[in-house]
Amino acid sequence: MRRRGTACAAAGLLLAVALGCTGGGGEDTPEPSPAPSRAKSETPRGTPSPTPTSTSALADPVSLPALMRREHTGSGLRLGSALDRTSAYTRYAITYEANGLTVSGIMNIPEGEGPFPALVLAHGYIDPDVYVSGQGMPREQDRLARGGYVVLHTDYRNHARSDEDPDNDVDLRLGYTEDVIGAALALRDSGRPEIDGDRIGLFGRSMGGGVVYNTLVVAPGLFDAAVAYAPVSGRPQENIDHFQRPDGDPVVAEIEEKHGTPEEDPAFWRDVSPLTFADRATEPLLIQHGTADDTCPLAWSREAAAAFEKAGKDVELRAVPGEGHTFGSRWASEMDATEAFFARHLR
């Protein structure tokens, strides 16, 4: 049986859990859909990543250094039935393999002659018990496909038709990072003429923003550029304290029993924070965060941007005046900025 966090306290509450969190978090509520050369990564694809430096003498198997040392696999991208056809793109049910697990999702493929650059979308928290395939980031899925991108929206493990990973919640949901890495590798390995496997970007919101941070430090050079939209904290313990502990999530006790508290084992908690390893990132990163976000405080993004900047990385933080966790009136203009960012680095 898969472990679950507690359900959201109120139906309209949007909460997000960082990849390092284990309970409920920022929920992606479905919403109505409304040519420069790319930069080269400092780490060529297919070459080994720099050896990770753990903050402990021997990294815990549940840690970012452990994921850095793992040889990740992603393959077997399979298109299922066509779910929808528009004048601009066709939407398919898909599955792919990531480190031995089958992960489901959806893919939008633009009309016209490819190959098209591809984007992997990492959604925010939605209770897996109610989640349906492709539920997260509906506005972004539609707009980016209309903009000429192949869009692969991963469901993650334990969601929809994906395989189950019963330890994922207690192990700080690090499996979601593996699922995103596997999605990129599956795109590159697909052999499909519509997909340009040499031009792949990553876009995550809320909890998926935490997935973005982790992916950048675990697999530098895999993507060409990344966007984090209203992301959670880069420090897992902050997300637990902000989202799970006040809600009485029983998984918190399981986490602390297995991994200890930050006071009991500070090295473990440093090793599950992507900010510890910001120097490993190679991709340009755009962070977008509303100043009125009362789900994920803007201070979290300011800290993350400062960490990447201090490490000498190409990072930009756009603090969007007056916007909350799910952008409203400024969503279209922020998507303009997102598409312009990807156009600079993927085309």
TrEMBL record:
GO terms for molecular function: hydrolase activity. Residues 144-346 form the Peptidase S9 prolyl oligopeptidase catalytic domain. Pfam families: Peptidase_S9 (PF00326). Residues 23-62 are annotated as: Disordered. Residues 44-56 have a biased composition (Low complexity). Residues 1-23 form the signal peptide. Keywords: Hydrolase, Signal. The keyword Zinc does not apply. Belongs to the AB hydrolase superfamily. This is Alpha/beta fold hydrolase.
